[in-house]
Records
---
Amino acid sequence: MAAAVAQLRRIGLPRLIVHLSVLAIVLLWLFPTLGIFISALRDKDQLAVSGWWTALSTAHRTEVARLADPATQKQEGNLYVIAGNVWEAGDARTIDSFGTRIQEPSAVKAGETADLGEGETLQVNADGSYRYAKPEAFDGSRGRRIYLTVTTPPEFTFDNYRTVLNSEGIGRAFINSLTVAIPATIIPILVAAFAAYALSWMRFAGRTLMIAMVVGLIVVPLQMSLIPLLRMYNEIGTIFGVPSKTYAGIWLAHTAFGMPLAIYLLRNYMVGLPKEIIESARVDGASDFEIFVKIVLPLSFPALASFAIFQFLWVWNDLLVAMVFLGTTKDQIVLTGNLNALLGSRGGNWEILTASAFITIIVPLIVFFALQRYLVRGLLAGSVKGG
Amino acid sequence: MVGQIVSAVGVMIVGVLACIAYFWLSNKLLDMIFPVRDGDVMAASRSLRRRAIVRPWLFVGPALLVLVVYLVYPVIATLILSFYDRSGTQFVGISNYQWALNDREFRQSIFNNILWLAVVPAACTFFGLVIAVLTDRIWWGNIAKSLVFMPMAISFVGASVIWKFVYDYRAEGETQIGILNAIVQGLGGTPQVWIALPFWNNFFLMAILIWIQTGFAMVILSAALRGIPEETIEAAVIDGANGWQIFWKIMVPQIWGTIAVVWTTITILVLKVFDIVLTMTNGQWNTIVLANLMFDWMFRGGGDSGRSAAIAVIIMLAVTPIMVWNIRRANREMGGH
């Protein structure tokens, strides 16, 4: 005790409070996600009847069982006895307690004998074997119904993942999401990098205006673009006889929607590159194209990486653009769209929802933890963007 | 499936190559059109000057094209469409806006959006600041920050599933599998259908966005706090200021600009909030917001582009002051270049 007090004095009470409050915040932030991680791995019957935080403890459940028919009774001395096992062979569950009324499914502990009045007794053991005895012969045609409180050990399984990947279309949607996200990340980087170079190192009329336009467009809500673009896509589709909802269409849309932030971030970075390097290359007779490809592009790697992560997360997590520019058929629906559809059709099936949600968020989480450094840098550089 | 992967990879390569080819070929072409030959100095310098005029436009061309087609033109078109009827053919003046002002759902959306604007940016900034200050003082602060920051990577739809599970409801007396109702029932309360609880359900939806965005506020504010010069804090300590005073009178005033940036960024995000409401309630139980109402009218009854556009314009109007502020700030910062 004295040692603990000394320890506490050394750390200091205020410091301890800081540690504990940060711990509380972190747990609060982690708890919701933990819920679906654990639930997705649970047996679906257990998931439906107990909270995920009890996943590691053994579950107690009430079950109904029927004793054998009166026809199987045997006479032992002056008692009529029905004996047997409530489980089929091979069942490993253990019985905690039992009862004869639904209101009291755990009235009597397993292994003890329940006195049912008028000399009638029932004994159920933990392994399921029972002995039901009575001074008079049993009548009726069906066995007696009894209630058991059963303990089941925690069960973890990958079945939920197998189900959603195959029969709920999540596997296919995963591929679709990749098909959307990768080109929609690479194309805007290339296009924006050239523009950013021109806006930082080349002189031309209208440069300031274009920079102002880019900054202004960063915050323009997507909603302002949707209606005219939807019309435009439909018209182009009708005129040229092509489908209006295509992957190429959504790549271009994402390229454009990511463009203002991309140009802004990259320009801010490129402007800060040392002037001497670029000027001396110019003096040596290098063209702007060569300077850009050989000097500026490699030096801008950190900014390019920051934007790539932003754009990838944004495209992967987007629902609105995909709902407008892509179809909802199996070969076009993306993960977020599929998850949204499942929320409607599988509202109560948490084993399906949690496993699907996990597959939806795992890729961004890997990207996040692997490349967090670049993401933070990008955020600090581009915090005028509204998402 | 394999076919799709192959074709996706193929298209990816073609797309990227086409991009590279455009920039490379257009530059080559420019050099060929305006050749620089030895000998004729006058002609050479004229060529060089012309190249310098054209080349910037080759570089910004594709970017400018997508910006104009996908953002500038649609903004103007939406503005115009908002004065036309449902099919966009008949001019109807301001009647779409008049309709909006008298529409019950629209009023509900405005009310909810204001509620969101009042709560979410303030809550995110406050929690972000508190967590940034606390984590800066402990050795495992970076791990803690990383975990609070993590929801940033999760999609709104994924986050909605996560929180729908938290809010899950079973009838009273049954085993609750949603943690919130389990806690409420454990403490002797009555479990509630949280997302259908009038008025308060808005706050349960906001909790999701706060959960996602606090990490963003924390990261930015934490960097700003580290940028505060040590001397100012040391001077305050010498003058006998306590921790509370140092925080409010020394630290907060110095990061005021950053707080404003965080606040406005989250404000814009809140104005556009869509996915969370769509997946949690689809606007039922009085939770509808402008972005969802707008999306609804895009397709409702075959779509009403007039009403939908009018709602979009109203979202745009709300964003405009922030946009102007951003442009001015950027222009000021650019002064040197």
---
Amino acid sequence: MQTNFTVEQLADPNVQSSNQVLRTCVHCGFCTATCPTFVLLGDELDSPRGRIYLIKDMLESGRPATEEVVRHVDRCLSCLACMTTCPSGVHYMHLVDHARQYIEETYTRPWHERMLRNVLQMVLPRPALFRAAVLGARVARPVRRLIPRGSTLGDRVHAMLDLAPGKLPPSGSMQSPQVHKAEGARRGRVALLAGCAQTVLAPSINEATIRLLTRHGIEVVIARGVGCCGALTHHMGRHDPAMASARANIAGWTREIEGDGLDAILINTSGCGTTVKDYGFMFRAEPAEWAMKAERVSALAMDISEYLTTLNYAPTRPMPGLRVAYHAACSLQHGQRVLNEPKALLRKAGFTVVEPAEGHLCCGSAGTYNLVQPAIAGRLRERKLANIARTKPDLIAAGNIGCITQLSGDGTPVIHTVELLDWMAGGPAPAGLPQVATAVPA
Amino acid sequence: MIAQPPPKADVIARRSEIVAGLQALLPASGVISEALRLKPYETDGLPAYRQIPLAVALPETTEQVAAVLAFCHKNGVRVIPRGAGTSLSGGALPMSDSVVVGLMRMNQILDIDYADRCATVQAGVTNIGITNAVAAEGFFYAPDPSSQLACMIGGNVGMNSGGAHCLKYGVTANNLLGLRIVTMQGEILDIGGQHLDAAGYDWLGLMTGSEGMLAMVTEVTVRILRAPEGQRAMLVAFDANETAGRAVDAIIGSGIIPVALEFMDRPAIHACEQFAHAGYPLDAEAMLIIEVEGSVAEQDDLLNRIAALCEPFHPLSLRVSQSVEESVAIWKGRKGAFGAVGRISPDYLCMDGTIPTGQLPFVLRRIGEMSDAYGLKVANIFHAGDGNLHPLIMFDANRPGSFEDAEKFGADILKLCVEVGGCLTGEHGVGVEKRELMTVQFTEIELNQQRRIKTAFDPDWLLNPSKVFPLVEPPQAADLPAAA
Amino acid sequence: MSVALAPAHEGGVVEAILAARAAKEPLLVQGRGTKAGMLRPVQAARGLSTRNLTEISLYAPQELIISAGAGVSIPDLEAKLAEGGQGLIAEPPDLSALLGTEAGVQTLGGVVATNLSGPRRVAWGAMRDHVMGVRAVNGAGEVIRSGGRVLKNVTGLDLCKLLTGSYGTLAVITEVTLKVLPRAELTGSLLLPGLDAIRGVAALSSALGSPFGVSGAAWLPADAAERVPALAGRGAVALVRIEDFAKSVEYRLGRLAEGLAPFGAAALLNDEASGAAWRAIRDAVPLRAEPGDAVWRVSVRPSSGPATLATLESAGARGFLDWGGGLVWIAGPPALHERVTATALAGRGTWTLLRAPEPMRAAVDVVPPEAPALARITRRVKTAMDPAGILNPGRLYAGV
């Protein structure tokens, strides 16, 4: 597509990158079809092509973002289904990330939105605060009917209270910085991103991951200084906090790489995985040393299912006779193009894997999307659950804590892929399994 | 920028009144009128042409469409119908005094009848959406334009869309049973139904391919077909366009009608391979994708016959797809061809002429010469069975004059298509893009005949008025005796 | 009729129309007149026949295209196509026996102007689906072309479709370009005896919904089947056809028979018997129409075919079903007209009065009347093409 940037504008590395993205787009419109918000809202403005057009206009004009543009960019889930669909290879993720940063820098949101975003930015990446907040939400739940629905603010508060789990599991000790030794001969050494919210909501995911890896002869490092991947603030357009998170992680992992060495950096929350794999791009304009380190971290980053595929995973329990609906997290299928590995592993573990219709559509979780856009997120959740229900599964498997939280509570248990794999390879039965299934002998 | 008829000053002056009128007819989110939010509606799949409309209306029901059209008719406001906005001929290009009526919200499947092999859907259902809805029962909707993922059935009717498989299954017109349409006056009419061949004039046939100039389509009843037992694609590579062309003639001449017979030249092969990783032969000058259907034994039999027919033309390679995934990849490359060219060139113009198939080598040679003369690269994709040629002219819109050259080059190609016995457009429609070239194919008498039929439906020329015909003052109702 | 012209060139057609226009006299447009008994009669002082436009100007087998004058007879056209191993796709019927006209002389122009299609219509489309191009002269004496000589063409409004089936009321077709296809190497049919109409159509539906490419699907009650030697002596029959390469026909008939097993054991009709049976069905031979009877063609959705036929049989009509059940051929006393039209419309279908005594044809609707808004468009389109209203006035609708 034709673009109109001045030479001065193009001196900015962000504009330069966005210009390249825009030039790749030929405006064919294929992306509209697989965009969840276009499918629901039926408006070009809520499609990738429409957003690309709005962003193009905003960036070219160099004017501050306006409420109209912000509304439609905010509605984007960043699910990246458009990138899977695009025949021209338009890197929408980099464009929309730039647009979000531009909006954050040039647009003043209403006070309650600013507050919400500040709170999310402060709380979610910090496990201790997040734990306290969830407990607070439990306290607040009885008084929720006092909060009126119908207003943006009221709906969002309800969304938060709805999503907060009824109780929290104990945090356990496996996720804190340490080295988990391989069982038997060491075949490899990896770092695991323990993550932030996940450590609070479902420590069992990291525990299963560590058990599964060490059982396969892999030494697992929870590196010191590594915390939130930065995706949360990155997707809010908050450049500096995102870079700070990423920098801390890069530093932590670099110590390990340059110390005892790492074969891979594993991520079992695919939303984070997409971001870690993008560190190289995020640091492209930083001093060469950091750019190199970031590049190296990104090159080592792998989803847990990608890495497990390279090991000789084999179940030790008999086939459980369970029908598993595999829910492909957007960050995994679109962001990282990891499509078959999780399904193949689940089949290897002995599960009957079924794939719901419209598997390309987001479930509405999308990071903090279900908190800031509860109406659309709710419709996507219903649509997703209805498609899943049609496959008549015993349980749902997914590789992303966001999706797991979003899809839980509908009767069918939602369990991380890695917990199911660990179970069938000798680990404990994941919590929340159907009664009959837990009777599977070891 | 493309010429447009003079805007109606009185309509533009009454803009806020018109917007308010529309707002009274539609849900709040159904009317777009702020300048910034109108911008993404200024163009479609041909972004070289742009025009911001007066307003955009997004109705959700046939009744709302009727109300909007009646309102616009009463107020003398021009209306531009829009589906998914994937037109490659500028079919949904707005006018500054027009209301774009988008049917994207009408995306419901209304009825599926397997016993009678038909489905009724709203106009905003995507082409692939119909197939997806019936695939579990083993059925499909046959026409498969490359944009089938995104393009909507209402737009398919407007353009009479084809696709790679229409050699066997026909184009949109051949797969329709009925339409619900809304006239510019706001009347809702049903034509055809769930049965074949309505008596009286063939309104279904006339509406199909009328590019939204006669009425707006809101519901469509299509034939659905049972999918064959299986299908398999074969890639055959040749060292010259000419030999590939002769192989096509030999296949059709033998009495075999493959379900698809697609030709790609060297630049197209390379662009698509980058996108699809389908194992296209990168050493070839030309490649055929040949698909056959039936049981495995039938496929084998046909593929063997076709391979034997290709043999005298010394193919460089001949590869039969061994799995469903391989066939999917082969078609992914072909169907993403237009966008894939976006990887090797920032901009392209997609031409859509049809030629007698025997003229292919000559036409490709001439296109090659023109490509050199204009200094613009071109990739050719060709529905070889039915003669529909898609030269993709690559240019750089950021370079002054580049688009204008590409346009001229395209016009020269289309004139060549007509010269050798073909036509300006096989499946993309005339739109605004080829409007002024219509005089190459038709006499003024013929164009006036078509204009008078447009007038019979839309006496005031309010519905998509700047498309298809070269811009002249439209014949008005006064030209017709008072038969109405 | 004072003047009846049959020019050998398009120029003569133009002259005839201009003369009629100048004289303000209606013109009866026809080919060989074999279909004059269909629909409404035309009151015209002048006649114009296209029977002498017999040139075949182009035949390109590799391009699946033939261009022929409107006056070329269907048998001549088929003979020409046979040279290239090809044939007409829509299998147009020869209804001369039913209409009491000369057999084997109907013209291409006549078949196109009436959009007459045979059994293959259910799978491969109607005549109108294969008209790729036309040349015609409108009521103002202007030569207009639409379409062309290529298989895919969306340039401008599709007047090919508008003119096909317009019974010469909009323009006089002088030349037609058709898409043609290779003749099948072999045909064969499965015959399922003893099914009533509902079970019969269920069997046809199952066959048409199979992946085996059925190209003909008809159900005949016992008395109708008796009129076709290849089908006689088995009671009511459901019949499905496969046309393809020989090996495929064998394989597909076998698989179809398996799939149709719930409907009973199928008998196999070989190439010759199958050919004879489908020619008879094409030409409506199974329909017993007594002198003085009217004949209707009713088109409904296939699953409504049995009920439509049963209702009309109970009123004293006879009939049979083609197009998988969707085409209901009906013969019976003219007095049944209202019953037929009401039944067709109740089944949300359409109907054509194909044959009737002349006074009746002049007095009743011969196709369903259109909704007022559509009828207005019909009149305006008629005026757009034939401003003076001289071409076959009243042939489809009174006053149009």
